[in-house]
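Appendix B. Chain record.
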Amino acid sequence: MALGALSENWLFKELGDAHWKMICDGLNTKSYNLKNDTHDRLYATFVRIQLDSRPSLKAFRENAECHLDGEIERFGNAMYFSKVTLKSDEAIATGRLMTTFSVRDLTDNTKLAKGEPEVSHNMVAQVTKLPQIGSEYRLLKKKVLEQLVFDDYVFDLDMNTKPIFEMSYNLNPYYDINGVNLLYFAAYPIINDFCEAQYFNTLENLPSRWEQSYYTTYKDVFYYANCNPSDQLTYRLHQCKRLDTDSYLVSSSISRNSDDAIIARVFSVKTKK
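Structure tokens predicted for this chain:
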């Protein structure tokens, strides 16, 4: 629990752990034994995580009994897609996760290279068509997708106009960096939300602090790149739309200051319900 709701940071870690475990079970190997054909260590790299929580993360209650279920499939040998659901009597959160494999440059986190595991048997079911979560990722990265739509949520993808708000973020190495000195995938949405709150807490029409009033109903993180622990990040707010009296639709980006490369785009819906 965090701020009176289910912790989003914990939830991302739990969904990621379930996804990673299903991959390793399907490949019948331990994570540290995953290597490519030249015996380089492979790391699972998240490229997109889509979280849909109904009614919101606030609906999960302290001491509630929850059940976690997941299923996984792959497209080729490198791209894996899972659906993981956390359900209680009051709420349900569904995560859709997409990963590839990367070979890490030991001196520069901006130079991750793609790879494929060399295994004799792969028990993960294979699909013949790239799932929608993957095709949308490719189209958005190529900048040929005009809108991102999920149910009734429509996100504008234009980044050519001046940001509504931007700020710098200094990485916390004790919290944001993982065991192999990469920016932790679960840190991206939390960095985003911390910076997002700095903007909303300047608005006069909020009855109380943003982070204690509005909770995630939808979160979609597109991961583009990583950064070094010494990097500073820049958060930019590109779209802020009030859906009704209780909900906001927000889109933003996170860039590394060393070369101003976008390392993530984040699309959110926050609600008081």
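Further analysis of this model is presented in Appendix C.
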